[in-house]
Amino acid sequence: MKVKSDILGIIKGRVLDVETHANINRLFTWDGKEWLKTVMEKTDTTIVADERILSVSIHGEKENQKSAIDMMEVYLQKLKTSKSKTLSLKGDDKPPGLMKELMLRYEFDFKKLVQESGLQCIELNHRLHLITLIGEDRSIEDAGVIINSVIESMIKNRKECKLQRTQTRDCVVCFCPIQEGEIYRLEVCGHPYCKDCAELQLY
Length: 203
What we know:
GO molecular function: hydrolase activity; RNA helicase activity
Number of strands: 10
Structural class: alpha+beta
Helix content: 40-55%
Domain DEAH11/12 KH-domain: 86-153
Mean pLDDT: 81
Enzyme class: hydrolase
Keywords: Hydrolase
Order of helices and strands: HEHEEHEHHEEHEEEEH
Low-confidence stretches: 1-5, 162-166
Protein name: DHX8
């Protein structure tokens, strides 16, 4: 019976979710996913992350499960006490399409921006166009400088190139206008996407 119980424990696994860990969403950033890979390697466990319901299940021997959970809790606690800064990516002082431009330059999960600035992780609120930088003061400052350089570049390009107004619709991800004939739709929802954002949904 004990052997059966141990096997069932390995198969079932232990679950961490938003009810037990309020900031578990940070395990689903690029940095968080990389950390989960490290945890699996060090603890000989299998970790299944479900981003739809913000839950993580840990599978393996009970002692290994506990070690993995301990590592994740230390990681989440460190992020919880880290400094953060939230920036708006839209407004009168921001060029249209800033969020989209940042995603194209630094990848959908901002992996490249994390690596270049030394941040611990980045959170993006697509609906409100808010980006949260998490890490040490210097890293947050460096990331801010990078974002500002993108803003300045976009503003300069807009001044140099004036586009004629056309019949357009807005992309549901980046909210940039899409010209007729360049609208993409996913079969599952039918919403309008620009080409770049449609491709990002496929990865």
